[in-house]
Design a protein that fits this description.
This protein is α/β, with parallel strands linked by helices. Helices cover 34% and strands 13% of the residues. It binds adenosine monophosphate.
Amino acid sequence: MTEPVTPSRIDSFAQLQLAAPLAKAVAELGYESMTPIQAQAIPQVLQGLDVMGAAQTGTGKTAAFSLPLLQRMLAHENTSTSPARHPVRALVLLPTRELADQVAQAIKSYAKYTQLRCTVVFGGMDMKPQTAELKRGVEILVATPGRLLDHIEAKNAVLNQVEYVVLDEADRMLDIGFLPDLQRILSHLPKTRTTLLFSATFSPEIRRLAGSYLQDPVTIEVARPNETASTVEQHFYSVGEDDKRRALKQIVRDRGIGQAFVFVNSKLGCARLARSMEREGLKTSALHGDKSQDERLKSLDAFKRGEVELLVCTDVAARGLDIKDVPAVFNFDIPFNAEDYVHRIGRTGRAGASGLAVSFASGGNDARLVADIEKLIKKKIELEPFAFPENEPHGRFNQGRRLYEHEDGRPPRARDDQRSGGGSARRPAAAPRDPFFDQPYEAAAPGDTAVAPSWEASARGAARSPVSANIKPKRKLAALFKPEVPSSS
Ligand code: AMP
């Protein structure tokens, strides 16, 4: 493996001299400057080198690998209707359906003015339309491993002319247990090819995978793995299991959070929490593996359009999704895997904007999991007690329309072991309502946000809003981590 490359001096698309159809598509998307991963990877891929890239999602890595691959494939571009003239030349493998769909859409937008065809295949959908597309001939095939194997076995996908392979979100593919599938797929491919591997972190398993399938790769790292952005205000609250929902709602309300990701560890927990928050009047969607493909894509679209306030999701379903500018991330459950903490909170505080990451620890294994995170991010974590307002009882969250009361109107009994403020539970006169949620989404006024990197700024456009716009703190919560100020403890 070669040493990490030093950043290239070329950092604008104009200097890159992309072929006219690609340059036109890139200009239409509003990209001017290259992102760091693009500036470093594109020249290497254009030379046909294997690349091992450590890049978090949202870094622009899709364009980093697809633009140079498209540029190289233009040599094979043709307008023939014969499928034989459109063999699969580039294979892009991803762990989840949403990611596969997202990456395929991005590649299609980059290839829009070329004759190169791109399609996507993933599980949970009828194979027939996918088969028809494959049979028509396609140069770029984006796929999840399981469904691709189905198509290989059905002889719908012939991969003997593949010249380029991209293993995207490779660490997640290994986490999900796709290694045997990947090995089978790679055994169907020609040995002479360019292979690119992207992963959020370079674990020993990833290095082994790269060692087996990449040829003397160039290593590119654009952000230190396992680093949490210093712009993210992180809190860990000690909250009883039964109080987590109320705490979540309280923080959303108090801080005027317009949109947030809420991570849970199980599909069942995900569905239950989403239902419960929906009953609370928060526009909520769930994203987990048991949802149909159609439901998942609809949830995502609704969130992107700003119609959904809380997207409750599992790690697998949410990993790598192109949703930026989320003002807050909640770890309703502490992740089992400390690296997932980094991925989860990487959704907020991007591009120098401020973000909020709140984690609820409720006992059981949580202390050990928090200790693992502490070790990974190399920052001291202090558990804060969560304080509910005195006139709001805590304990079991309401299960129905009426807030803070039993069906017969009696207030619920606060659980002693989770009481934090003392005093007995009293029923408030009316359910609290924050007018913020009744208002349509508003973009921030210019100057509200920290300066974004030029590559982000160029594509933001007038409609895009910076992250900090949605956080309107009403009450100062003590920041746990203030990286610039040494801790007094
Ligand atoms: P990715 O990490 O590939 O999912 O890309 C994240 C987002 O960044 C996508 O919405 C891209 O459209 C956008 N993007 C990629 N490259 C650039 C660029 N050079 N300038 C502006 N936006 C970009």
